[in-house]
Specification:
By secondary structure, the protein is an alpha/beta fold. The chain contains 16 helices and 13 strands. The chain folds into two domains: about 5-160 and about 340-355, 3-Layer(aba) Sandwich (Rossmann fold); about 170-340, Glycogen Phosphorylase B (Rossmann fold, 3-Layer(aba) Sandwich). The protein starts with a strand and ends with a helix.
Amino acid sequence: MAATVHIDANRTWGGGQAQSLGLATALAANGERTHFIVQAGSALAARLEGTDLPWEGASLRGLSGALAVPQLSRRLRELAPEVVHVHDSASHAIAGLAARRAGSAKIVVTRRTEFPLRGSWLGRLKYDRWCDRLICISEAVRRRCLEGGVPAERMVVIPDFVDCAHFDPAVVGSVERREGPTIAMVGRLARSKGHGVLLRAMKGVVRAVPNAHLVISGEGEEEASLRREAELQGVAGNVEFAGFVPDVRAVLAAADVFVMPSLEEGLGVAVLEAMAMAKPVVVSNAGGLPEAVAEGETGLIGPAGDPEALGEALVSLLTDPERARKMGQAGRARARSEFDKPRVVERIRALYESVLAGGQ
C-alpha cells in the first residue's frame, strides 16, 4: 500500500474533480494513508469538508502558487508520501517542482485533456523532470502527449471511472418523466462541449419529432449565447437549461437518449455515467469519445461539428425505442466491464506499486 498525496488546483467542480476525489476516497477506505491538497476556496475544498479524508487548502495556481512552492515543498516533506499524484495541468508545474524539492516521492500525473502539449521550456520540465509516470485517460490523449515529445515508456492509458453501484437505474428507481421523448446533455457550458452544434441539430430533431425535449445540465460562460442560439433556431420551447445539478442521476433516469457532441474531449465521464444508467448515447468522434462508446452497440458516433449528422442520429434513436433500450442495456454492461470504479482504482493502485518498484 502506497502513502499518497493528491493535488488538484481546479477552482470549479467538474468530472476531473469527481475522479480525483473518488480515487482518494477509495484509497483511504482501503486503509491506505491518503492526503489531499486543493486550491483554497475551491469547489473541491467545499466537497472535502463533508468527508473524513485528511485535506488542506493551499495556493496552487499562477503567481501566488509559484511563490508558495517552498511552503508546499515543506508540507510535502512533513507528510512524507511515497507518491504525489497531480490531477490537473494547472498545478503540474508548481506541485511537480515542490515534490522534487521535497524528496524522493514518485510523481504521477493524470492528463485528461487532448489539447496539444506546449513546446515551452516549462512544458519540457513538467514532463521530463516533474513526472515519473503520466496517466492518459484515453488513447487519444496518449497520442497527443506522444506528439508533444513525452516518451512512450513514461505513459500508461487508464480511463476515468464510473461508480456503477451509484449510477444504477435500479437504485434511482422511478422518476417523473415529461410527455414526449427526452434528450439529456450534462457538461460545462463551454464551446468545446459542442452545445451550439447540438442546438442547431435540434432544429431537425424537432421537425421530425415535434414533442422532443432537450435538457441541458451545467453552468458556464456560454450560457447567454446558447440561449440566444436556441431562440435563433426556433427550438427554445423544446430546450431547458437546468443549470448545475448536484446529482445528475435523476436527469439521466428521465432521459431516453444521452448526447455529447464535443469538439474536444479527453474521454467523457458524463458518457460513462449515462451508460451506467443504461441510456443509449450519441457522441461525436472527438478525442477519446469513440473509445468510450461501442458504435452501433452502446450508442452512435458521428463527425464532430456536424449538426445534420447529429440530428439524424438522435432522431433514429428517439423513433426506435426498442433499439435505444437494447443499446442502453449494452452500455451498462460495458460500463461495468470496462470502467467500473473498483476496477479502475485497482489499476491506479497497481501503477503506484509499479512506479515505486522501479518498473514500467
